[in-house]
Structure formats: C-alpha cells, structure tokens
Amino acid sequence: MEGDRASPVPKVLGSSRSNIPRPAPTKAVPPASATVQAARNLKRRSIEHFNKALSGTPAVKKMALSTLSTPRYSVTRPLPDSMRTGRATMAVPGGQPRYLQTTAASTRRVAPPATTRTKPSPTPSAINRRSASLPRESAEVVEMKAKIVQLEGELLKNKTELELLKSQLTLKDQNLEMLQTSLKCLQDTIAFKDAQLNTIQMALDAEKGKSTMMQVTLDAKDSENAHLKHELCERMEDIGRLTSQLAAKRDELREKDENMRLLHNTVVDLKGQIRVAVRVRPPLGKEQDVPVNHLSYPGVSSIKLDQGKGSQSFEFQRVFGPNMSQARVFNDVEELIMSCLHGYNVSIIAYGQTGSGKTHTMRGGEGESEGIIPRAVKFLFQSREKLADLDWKFEFKASFIEVYNEEVYDLLGERKKLDVKMGSGNTSVTGLKYNEINAIDDIENILAVTDRTRSTAATKCNEQSSRSHAVFELSVQGYNKTSGASRHACLHLVDLAGSERVKESGAEGDRFKEMTYINSALSNLQNCIRSQLNKNPHIPYRNSKLTMILRDSLGAGNSKTLVIVTLNPAVSQIAETKRSLEFAQKMSMTKIGSAKKQEQ
C-alpha cells in the first residue's frame, strides 16, 4: 500500500501538462489488424474508381464532384455515452442518430451499470493504467471514425459509379436493341438476296442448258461450214475457169459485134443515105365524119393517092398508116439511132404541112404517146448499159434550138440570138448551151422547158401551130477501156415548121411574116435536095439558117438521114398531100454518099 501511495497518481481530467508523466519510449508499431487492412483496401479501390470517374465524360465528372461537395453524412464528435458504450454516433440528415460499433482493439467493452450493485473504488494503479490507455483509445477511435467516413465517401463514390454504369448499361441495351433491329434487317436482306441468288442460279442453269444446246448447234454449223468451204473452193475453181471462158467469149462477142455493126451500116447504106418514110395521121374531130377514100396502102412501103380523075402510087422506105402507134413507128427507126453508138452521125427530120402531125411524131405526149425524141434517148440509155458488158462507156449531152423568122434561139438558155458559123468541114452555133444527160428523167425536164419556150400560135389550119423549126441535138461520146477505142457522134432530131398556103391559112400581120419565113426556109431545103439529086457541084446551104444547121444531115457531112413526111388525111387537103408526096419521092431518089464513122 505504501508503495502504491509513494507513486504519484496521474490526473486524468483537468491536470496540467507538467503533471503528466512522460511516456515511455515508442516501441515498434504492431501490424495492422484485418479490419484496418480491409478499410485500407476499400479506400484504395474507392480512390481508383473516383479517379476513373474524373477521367470520364464531363457529365460523369460533374456528378462525382457534386457528390463529394454535398456528403450525405456528417461525423460528429462522440457523445459522452460513447465512452461507456464504446459506440460512436453519426448524425443522419432528417433521422435518428446512427450508432457505429467500434472494434474491441480500440475500445474496452463496458458492462451496463447495475442498478443495485455498488462499484468498488479503483485502486491507484488501475486508475493510472486507465488514464494512460484513454488517450490511445481515443486516437484510434477518431482514426477509425475518419476511416469510416472516408469509406462511406468511397461507398458513395461507388454508388455514383454504379449509377453511371447503370446509365451506360441502359445505353448499351439501347444500342444492343438497335443492333438487333439492324441484324434483323440484315437477316431479311440476306434472305432476299438468297432468294435472288436462287433465281439467278436457276436462270444460270437454264442458260447453261441453252449454251450446251448452242454448242451442239455450233458444232453442227462448224461441220456444215467446213463442208461449205470445201464446196466454195470447188466453186471458186469453177468461177476462175468460167471467168476465163467469159473473157474469151467477150472477145468473140466484141468481134461479132463489130462485124454486126459493119453489116448493119452496110445494110443502111444499101437502103440509101437519105431514107424517106411517110406517115398519115388519123382523122381528128369533124374529119372523122368524112370517109378517107382517097388514100390507100397497098403494102408496108407504098401509098396510093386517088384524085378521082386517076390514082398515083408512091414507093418509100416505109409507110405508116393512120393506125400505126408511136411505138411501132419508133421500132422502125431503132436501127438508125443505134448507129450513133457505133460512131455515125444520124438525122431524123419531120417534114409536112401544118397540122399533119410532125410535132406529135417527134415530141409526142406522155406514156404511150411519147414521140421519137424521148424514146430515142431512153433507147440509147438502155443500149449503153448493154454495151457496158463489152467495156464501153458513153456520155450524153443535149442542146435544143429553134429557127424563128430566120433567127436562131437557144430553148435551154437565155432567149437571145445566136450566130451560125459554117466552116469548110462543119457547122457550129456560137453560145449554144449543152446539158449533160445523166438519167432518163433529165430529158423529161429538158422537153418540159422547151415546150414552154418554143414559138407557137393558132392559125386557121392548126389551133397550136409551131411557128419555128426546132432542132434537138444529142452529142454521144464513147470510150472502151479495154481496147482504148473512142467514138463521137451526133443525133439530130428535127421538127420543121409546117408549110402553108396564103389562101388556106388566111395569115395576116405577124402570122403572115412567120409563114413567109417558114415557106422560104422549106423552099431552100427543097433546093438543096434537088441539087443533091442533080449532083450539082454547088449546094446552096447558105441560103437560109435552117439549111446551114442541117448541112451535115443533107450530104455535106457524114450522116445517115431519115425524113418522115407527115400527111393530113382530110379530103380538103388532098392537093397539099400530093405536093408532099412528090417532094418525098424526090428526096428518096437523092444519094448523098456513104457516111463515115467518127473515130478519135
């Protein structure tokens, strides 16, 4: 007891710092308990989660910072009873105090006070031990409370992170739902594409089947083609052999054609260089009421004129009765026109009184009524195509002039007077226009122009009488590319104006002047024919423009000439008919010499 009294008793409460004994030297800190270690681990994880939250999106960072700035719990100092109960209280907003149980290592369990039991007074040593342990236990409690507050803060952070994760999970769920929807669409698309693929595959299989069939057909065609190639080679050999034979036949045909041409022209020469044919037109209008008994046709080349007091017969190259068609007349002059392609000049002249059918014979109408001029051009075009097989090529050019009142005019150009020049060998018209004839339609256009420009007038003898002499000239130029031979010839087709008597025509004024020039030109033509017939040394070609132009056709040149004398069948014209027949007979007796081939 004395020893206990000798040791001073430390003051627990209210004692001064100088009275508190100095603590013993610090010993080594014992290892942390399991609870402390768990609290440290929880704190570390909370800090890591909080740092992750701060490094996240701005919204998450704001939420974490707001949570820390407004803590849900506030720690208070221990209540006085906590010294006895060993529990710390924590104020809960809006609720009752919450007690926190302390660990056994930091507090000493205090038994609840007995109601009737009297506590013994502690001994001084016990009081000293208790006084020494109180500061240490209070520090641990404070530290634990701080740790608990820290852990609760970390727990709050974890809850915030949990809410954030839940939000993210919701977004992920929404994204997942969208992805599932997209997946469903893709699956539907895949199903549709699979269906299309199946259809395409079926079509491909069908095409493969067709391809197989086509390959079989192709193989058959290849076999057939090989057979045809073999046949083609044989045919080519035959063609080569036939080509050689054809060339030989062409040479033979060319030789025979030349012989035929010579024989043909010999026959024409034997018939006479001025050949004369007579054509009687059919009765027209009131003429049909009077029978034509004064004319008869004993043969194809003879005509008989009965004048009542007696009859007279005439022989010519050909006589065309009133029933002869235009085509029949042309058939008889084809051989003469063909001489142009052989290189001989040819002239066909229509002569007769007015209204006897000269223009109808030479110009004609449309279709079957076509005259010698359009038919001759068409015939030459057809003959040119046939001669092309013998390597002949021909070109045609045409001109059309009229002699009106002893003046020459171009019917295809400007209506102006042209000069006629007669040299020693030929006659030319200066300024005359020539049109190329490349197609049959070209001659139709030319004749349409001349029909409008030629001088015509109505007389008592003819309602549309030609008041001029019209001369159509077709220039023929030929060349053979194999032999190199060339030919040049001219075809003259002449429609003379009709002769008239003053008493019969009743012409006055301009008509009388026209009649005078017409009859004068025809009279000069007759004089040239008589001079040829009488073999006079001088032929009066220069007496008129008409005979100057027809000089080459009347014996001065190299021409085969045919004169068609037209007759009016009317009984009232019997005297003029007789005069025309007598002039025709004189012309048929005229020899103008053999025509010469025009070669270059």
UniProtKB/TrEMBL annotation:
Belongs to the TRAFAC class myosin-kinesin ATPase superfamily. Kinesin family. InterPro entries: Kinesin-like_fam, Kinesin_motor_dom, Kinesin_motor_dom_sf, P-loop_NTPase. It is found in: Cytoplasm, Cytoskeleton. Residues 273-590 form the Kinesin motor domain. Residues 102-120 have a biased composition (Low complexity). GO terms for cellular component: microtubule cytoskeleton. This is Kinesin like protein-15. GO terms for molecular function: ATP binding; microtubule binding; microtubule motor activity. It comes from Trichostrongylus colubriformis. Keywords: ATP-binding, Cytoplasm, Cytoskeleton, Motor protein, Nucleotide-binding. The keyword ATP-binding applies. ATP binds at residues 352-359. Residues 1-36, 75-138 are annotated as: Disordered. It comes from the Eukaryota. One of its GO terms (biological process) is microtubule-based movement.
